[in-house]
Amino acid sequence: MASTEQTNSEVGHDGGHASGVFPPFDPSTFGSQLLWLAIIFGALYVLMSKIGLPQVEGILSARKAAHEGDLAEAARLRAETEAAIAAFDKALADAHAHAEEIGASTRDKLNAEIMAKRKAFDAEISANLDAEEHTIAEAKAKAMKNVGEIAAESTISIIQHLTGAAPSAAEASAAVAHVANA
Amino acid sequence: MAAEGEGAIDPIHQFVIEPVFHFGGLTVTNSAAFMIAILVVASLVMIVGTSQKALVPSRIQSLGELAYEFVANTVRGSAGHEGMRFFPLVFSLFMFVLIANLIGLIPYTFSVTSHIIVTFALAALVILTVIIYGFYKNGLHFLNLFVPSGVSPILLPLLVMIEVISFISRPISLSVRLFANMLAGHITLNVFGGFVAMLLATGTWAVILSPLPFAMAVALSALELLVAFLQAYVFAILTCVYLNDAIHPGH
């Protein structure tokens, strides 16, 4: 209780309260505290509910909307990107297919051309070959004929040399033909 | 504060209410002045600080948003979506108590919430809101609050009595908890601070002991900071719980 008495004197001195009770339990201050509390808390409630809280709520909902807008935009862009990638892949596959088609048709065409040219060439070669063979045969026949004449002339000159009498050309040719045929 | 006395520790002096100045016919006491300070701080954070409505908040704006979301989550969590109609009330209570407690931690200031009449008035406001809204919304069904369901008829009168007593004690526990926490914290801080001053004033070898109560005062200041926030939170969440009873009185 000593401290309480000390407090009493302090309170009386400083606060002008002669009541001398523990300050929080001093009923003489209750009225003014309640009045001020009512004014201040009422003002706080009005300021918060009418201005402060709607303002913050506006900020938060605006931010949420912005967030959701950004996310939707990102999703949209992503879908666009995926569509672009798919279109690119399709174009690439089409181009591959087209290129193969072109390659195959070109190859077929070239093969056909080569075959045609080869046939023509073969035909030309065999025609040439026939002609050459014919020429050779002619030349050979001519040469063989010449050989007979040369042999007949040689026979005439040999016999003339040996006997001094020249046989007739017809006799020599017959003799040569006779020998050649034997 | 003890240092200014006659060397004796006077931890009660800080709770004295005295007139500071006169404004017209009104006498502004230290309590009233600090209530005005609370209003100013709350308005600075919640109205001025958020007035730019920036998408990327400034520090003070994010403080306001933090307070808003914290209290809004508390109300939604304990009183459901319907409880959001009391959000401005709970928010005002939370901000008032929190700022009062925090301002009171600054040396040589005054704690509005260290006076039982203030905390009791706030608690009475909560309980009156619960009773009036409870009867307004549920009519006499609100009285079901006092009748636990699924109890044998023999035990019922006893349980109803217990429920009634617990309901009546709510405003008392709500106000005394806050008041006592603030009062005790401030007295303790003051006493340890006074010890430092007394030890230093002895001028003898006892001076070397003065860091001990000083360290204690530092640690207690940190604790009081926690208590200041915690008591505001407890006040707000209990308000939500009681309001939930008014919204959904069935057990």
Name some characteristics of this structure.
heterodimer; A: 182 residues; mainly alpha; 3 helices; rod-shaped; B: 251 residues; 6 helices; disordered N terminus
Sequence-ordered SSE layout with sheet pairings:
The complex is a heterodimer of chains A (182) and B (251).
Chain A: H1 2-14, H2 30-163, H3 169-181
Helix pairs in contact in A: 2-3
Chain B: E1 19-23, E2 26-29, H1 30-48, H2 59-79, H3 87-104, H4 116-138, H5 156-202, H6 211-247
Antiparallel strand pairs in B: 1-2
Helix pairs in contact in B: 1-3, 2-3, 2-6, 3-6, 4-5, 4-6, 5-6
If you compute it from the alpha carbons, what radius of gyration of chain A comes out, rounded to the nearest whole angstrom? 68 Å
Distance between the termini of chain B: 51 Å
Question: How many individual domains of chain B?
Answer: 1
Rounded mean pLDDT score of chain B: 89
Shape of chain B from CA axes?
globular
Structural class of chain B: mainly alpha
Count of helices of chain A?
Answer: 3
Percentage of residues assigned to helices of chain A: over 70%
Reading the helices and strands of chain B in chain order gives: EEHHHHHH
The strand count of chain B comes to 2
Estimate nothing, just give the exact number of structural domains of chain A: 1
CA-atom Rg of chain B in angstroms: 22 Å
Question: Largest interface, with Cβ-Cβ < 8 Å?
Answer: A-B, 42 and 50 residues
The fraction of residues assigned to DSSP E strands of chain A is: under 5%
Order of helices and strands of chain A: HHH
Oligomer: heterodimer
Strand order of the largest sheet of chain B: 1-2
Shape of chain A: rod-shaped
Mean pLDDT of chain A, rounded to whole units?
85
Q: Helical region count of chain B?
A: 6
Distance between the termini of chain A: 177 Å
Short description:
The complex is a heterodimer of chains A (182) and B (251). Chain A is mainly alpha-helical and 182 residues long. In chain A, 88% of the residues lie in helices and 0% in strands.
